[in-house]
Amino acid sequence: MSKQILRCTVNGRAVEIACEPWHTLANVLRNDLNLTGTKIGCDMGTCGCCTVHIDGKAKLSCLTLALECQGAKIGTIEGLNEYEMHPLQKAFAECGGSQCGYCTPGFIMKSCAMLKENPEPTREEIKAGLSGNLCRCTGFMKIYDAVERAATEMREKSVPAPVKA
Amino acid sequence: MPIVQGSGSTRNEHQKNKGVWSDSGAPAVVANSIIGKPAPLKDSFKKVTGEAVYADDMKFPGMLFSRILRATKPHAKIKRIDTTKAEAMEGVRAVVTGRESDMRFGVLPVSQDELSMAIDKVIYNGEPVAAVAADSEDIAERAIWAIEVEYEPLQEFLKPQDSLKEVAPELQLHDKVEKKHPNTNVHKAVDQEFGDVEGAFKQAASTPSASFKFDGISHGFTEPHAVIAHWDAEERVQLYTPQQVPHYTHRALAKVLDLPMHQIQVIRTTVGGGFGGKSDPFQHEMIACMLARKTRRPVKLTMDREETFLTGRGRHPTEAKMAMAFDKDGKLLALDSDVIIDGGAYGSFGVVSAYYNGVLSNGPYWLPAFRYHGKRVYSNRIPSGAMRGHGSVNPRYCTETLVDMAAVELGMDPCELRLRNFLPPNSITPHHKFRITSTGIREGLEEAMRRSDWKKKWGKLPFGHGIGVGCAWYISGSALPIHWNKLPQSTVHIKIDMDGGVTCHSLAADIGQGSDTMIAQIVAEVIGCRLDRVHVKSTTTDTAPIDLGSYSSRVTFMAGNAAREAAEVVRKDLAAAASKLTGQPAQYFDFAGEEIICRSKPSIRVSFMEALHEAQADRGALIASGSYQSPPLGGEFKGSNAGLSPSYSFSAFICELKVDPDTGFVQPLKIWAAHDCGKALNPLSVEGQIEGSVHMGLGQALTEQMRYRNGQMLNANFLDYKIPTPFDTPDIEVIIVESHDPEGPFGAKECGEGALAPIIPAVGNAIYDAVGVRMLEVPMTPDRVLRAIEAKARERAK
Amino acid sequence: MTMLLPRFELHQPATLADAVKLAKTHAGDFDFLSGGTDLLPNYKCGLNAHGHVISLAHIAELKQITRDTIGAGVRIVDIERNADVPRSVAFTAGHIASPLLRESGTLGGNLMLDNRCHFFNQSYFWRHSLGYCLKADGDRCHVVPMINEGGKSVLNNKVCVATHSSDLAPMLIALGAEVTFTGPEGSRTLKLNDFYFGDGIARFERKPGEILVKVGLPKWAHEVRSGYKKLAPRQSIDFPVAGIGIALDLDKGKVKALRVAVGAVDTTPVLFDFSKPAQVKAPASYLLTDPYKNMPDVIGKQLDDALIEQVSKHIQTQCQPKLNVPMEPGYRKKMCGVLTRRLLAELRDGAKS
Question: Is the pLDDT of residue B212 over 80?
């Protein structure tokens, strides 16, 4: 039993880090890489606070062994706003989708993956997509508002610019 | 924005007496319109980027990690603790046990009954017994299990009825019990009778009564408890903790660590949800400090989810018998209630809980006669304490159910019956002398009825589909602080230097409810500056003036008033400076849009910065202080303080739902939530508080319960403790009612807690409307609903 | 703190053959890891952890999905979104746990879920307080503390009644699914229903080192009407506390075949095959349930309300859930009847799926 080297990218940055086999991705992100935006709420996969992107999919980092991410592209909440705030981040703040904030990174990461697959979700689809994340503060309403607003902004942004003549 | 106007009292009259924020005495000019405009919470941008720092996110050089060994018996003598093996383990830096301190503490001065770690006996499964600080969590975890503890089990008190019995001294969980019940495990008994209760019941046309049972519930905040303590080289203690009330922890630390308060700095980290569950001074805070004292290194103590449940302080498991009397016109005559609440192992806020379970039934209806027998008992279970809507939620379910029953018996619409009984504004309740300054409950209920189409639905929906109503009220802060002294309940300091930044210091804890934003809005409004100019520093006891913290829904009212008062001082300074610069009399200036404008000649104006620099001449930074203390209130009898508040919020909720009569499943369809918050300083935030209350209340109504197997909590995790998921949460339509409280800052009252209570009876009453059964056990789980439906069917068949 | 995982060595074979080899090498001291959504929470609680964890997540052979076979390593979310598998199977997959858990969880993991019990799925601290149980570290069952042995009531130190809580298992069993294993002694294929066997500890008949490779669906599964109903306290996140999977073959309204599989009421899924095949599993194969006792005759009969009632009554009567997962056993038992009745009526009245 010994540490092994995990080679992957985290928020676009190549990472080489020695990991214990029994350390979860959440452990490594928070303790070794100091990416503490990823939160641990229940540690059993039921609250969604620890959601990150692994190769573009929203996954629970508390139930993922770090070494299982060999070669993977990992994205955390800190990676969403490298140059400017992501529309989801802005919308969660502006719509009141974040109160105590502890579940917020998880909600945003899950919403982000959801909008990639479905850029124009209905309210019911948003509800379904977020049904593995628990928020104790907001009653979810303002979170749905935020996702709707961000989705609209993202669709408008991604409209191809007119071709120059 | 659905805002309804409610009835305030004589606002201008009152403002004249109290001194208005507008120095001219003219009606408030809210030109800048910061107040009443939806504003994103100031700290939320850090939260959405992951920048916000919670306690477990912090790291310090040389930091150690701690784990607590917890009692594995609900009630037992500790015959032996041997820490030798743990101490010998490599990487273990310190081990502490109850020997460290026999100083008892607790949030209430009258219930100082908690030890940092158990001494001689343990009184609940999960109670801290010992703790370890080590180089890693891994080592610390292994070390606690190397500590040998030998227990000798004692008789367990797991049912409230057992705690009422007389027992031998060694079976008393605490030395101090209720004087009226010596030799028992009764913590506090409250017996009150006012008015002619017997007479009222004799002459009544309807006297509904029932026995109710409520399971305990937990706050379920998403951030588990976590603290970091450091005993630094200057012999000062630094404690980083997500506290709702840093001040009470500060006091308790001084007591337990035997240090002057000024040697301790409590630093509030970002709070990942509290709801009352982070408002006691905690054992783990003491333990981390003790380990820091031993090791002189920073010690982090982060709990897992189970330990967070075990630390407890949730809503008391409750058994209540209640009866109400109404005359033939539906006028409420009397209420008679008998309540036992299970306090678990410690006192916590329990003395207050024992009172609140009774006295807060004196609203929102006019109640001529009142009898209450309440007992809070100690038991060998997880300590109960204050949780959102503290003490008012369970009895509210009882009263609202009985009101509904009376309406059915009297052949009246339940909303109509409620409308006939509401406390009016500018009134004082007959016995407890609760002073109702403003109330918009009538307007709120009428609006909720209109929007829900109540009259077309109630009693008219098909079987299995129902609509129900629930009303409530709640305090905007307790008028009397728990530590009796002459200090203000809230103080806010403002400092403005030449950089133009407005720094506000307060110890009101922003726990996600947005109190920092509230303070910033009030200050910005008064001095007419932009919101982003105002920076609120509310985390450290070294710099913040004392505030009694974020509980009992006191912050907007009390800290808000303190902030307003401080801002008025600054405003005067700025007005004087503007006067000097313009030659116009100081009292003739309005403040808006970063300008100070001459009222009679608006073309004469100076910018905020010009005035500021002028005001700073010869004195440097502008410094101001404002504070709040409740006016003297209430009657003169023992316990008359309980339930007193400078102002009360009111709410009226309607819930439409479907009940599956074959499975007992309840699916809420829509909730109309009217809440009178006086004035919505930040409507976005008010809506968020109300929606959150509804969600949490729905959890208690339908799915959440702390389940036990003997003394062990069976479901101390988020899989088995059933917080409603998005699918289980219906659409919520918030109706903000503004009654403009004469004493609230800009008319505001509380909105964070009062909105929880009404949803539970609204659900219960809607279930009755849907399938004709009265749910007397909460949560109304499918098996319970189905059992009630089947019992009803059997009854009908007879 | 985070709940710490016990120490183990992680193996990440890229082929089935390597995985089998590793399993042989570490026989008796390993667990397979697929999505991790069941194993890791259990490991965090210190439940029967082993020194070696063999990840199956990197084996391409396990990840194929077609109309008729689903690889054991296929993620639940990919079954949920697959248009070729029977709609009932996709529907069932879409009702497992939560979207986040479905993103990691796999078919194999769901079928091999460890059984669940209040006294088992608890932290080390909790179980230490209790004095442990048969299924982990202990010597007695707290759900059924006493059993009858030779006419005498004795301490139950033998039989674990922990509940099998898979959603997909009952649905796939109803559809007649087969499972293929590969192990040190080669491959074998058997009926999924025959795979489950024994009490809450044994749970199935797996030979040492065998790996579940794929699930095969017979042609029949696409031709019959089928559906699933789940009972759980919440509408997301939760395990089923009863789950009914039904495959119904109707010929002009008359029952040609009816298979009802019930999950989360026994130590294994329970199949009620109303065609009463000659070679049914021995009654003793289910710990608590006897599906064939007084089973009504339905084959060839018109599936009217009365017959539906008879079938649901039978299921309700025979299911014997225990108080070891959320919701009362009596209630869950009753719901087995209610859900069967509803689902049967829906399948009869609805279009063929």
Answer: yes
> Is it the case that residue B19 has pLDDT exceeding 80?
no
pLDDT-derived band at B544, boundaries 50, 70, 90? very high
More confident position, A165 or B641: B641
What's the complex ipTM? 0.96
Going from the C-alpha of B401 to that of each of B389, B406, B414, B764, C256, the distances in angstroms are 18, 9, 10, 7, 52
**Which residues in chain C touch residue B712, judged by CB atoms under 8 angstroms apart?**
126, 129-130
Cβ–Cβ contacts within 10 Å for residue B635, how many? 16
CA distance A130 to chain B (A): 7
- For residue B5, is it within any domain? no
Number of domains in chain B: 3
Query: Which chain A residues are Cβ-neighbours of B693 within 8 angstroms?
Result: 139
For the stretch B278-294, pLDDT in tens is 999 999 999 999 999 99
**Fold category of C225-349 in CATH:** Enolase-like; domain 1 (3.30.390)
How many contacts (CB atoms, under 8 Å) link A and C? 98
Number of Cβ within 10 Å of residue C258's Cβ equals 25
- CATH code of the domain covering residue B666: 3.30.365.10
What does the pLDDT read at residue C207?
85
- Residue B15 pLDDT more than 50? no
Do B438 and B572 sit in the same domain of this protein?
A: no
The confidence score (pLDDT) of residue A165 equals 41
Alpha-carbon separation of residue B404 from B83, B207, B409 (angstroms): 59, 11, 9
pLDDT digits (tens, 9 = 90+) for B724-766: 999 999 999 999 999 999 999 999 999 999 999 999 999 999 9
pLDDT digits (tens, 9 = 90+) for B420-435: 999 999 999 999 999 9
Quote the CA–CA distance of C325 and C264 in Å, as a whole number.
9
Contact C233 B726 (CB under 8 A): no
CA distance B25 to B10: 15
Whether residues B146 and B239 share a domain: the answer is yes
Shared domain check, B577 and B525: yes
Q: Which residue of C has its CA nearest to B144?
A: C125
Instruction: Number of A to B CB contacts under 8 A, please give it.
Output: 172
Q: Collect all residues of chain B within an 8 Å Cβ-Cβ radius of residue A100.
A: 47, 221-223, 270-274, 511-512
Q: Note whether B325 and B467 are same-domain residues.
A: yes
Host domain of residue B434:
318-352+359-375+388-479+635-797
Are A90 and B717 within 8 A, CB to CB? Answer: no
Q: Quick one: B363 and B337 in the same domain?
A: yes
**Low-confidence spans in chain C with pLDDT less than 50:** 352-353
Which chain B residues are Cβ-neighbours of C131 within 8 angstroms? none
Domain boundaries, chain C: 225-349
Buried b or exposed e, range C267-306, using 16+ CB within 10 angstroms: bbbbbbbbeeeeebbeeebbbbbebbeebeebeebebeee
**B39 assigned to some structural domain:** no
Looking at the structure, tell me whether residues B541 and B560 fall in a common domain.
yes
In chain C, the percentage of residues whose pLDDT exceeds 90 is 92
Cβ–Cβ of A60/C6 closer than 8 Å?
no
Dist. CA C89–CA C87, nearest whole Å: 5
* Cβ–Cβ gap B719/C238 under 8 Å: yes
Answer whether C294 touches A (CB < 8 Å). Answer: no
Task: Look at residue B16 in the predicted model and tell me its pLDDT.
Answer: 37
Go through the domains of chain A in sequence order and give each one's CATH number: 4-79 (3.10.20.30), 87-157 (1.10.150.120)
- For residues B393 and B315, the answer to whether their CB atoms sit within 8 Å is yes
Nearest to C234 among B662, B715, B722 (CB): B722
Tokens of B26: 């003219």
The domain boundary, picked from B602, B628, B654, lies at: B628
User: Closest to A44 (Cβ–Cβ): which among B270, B511, B719?
Assistant: B719
DSSP C184: T
Instruction: Answer yes or no: is B11 within a domain.
Output: no
Same domain, B612 and B658: no
Q: Is residue B573 part of a domain?
A: yes
Please, which pLDDT band fits residue A82 given cuts at 50, 70 and 90?
confident
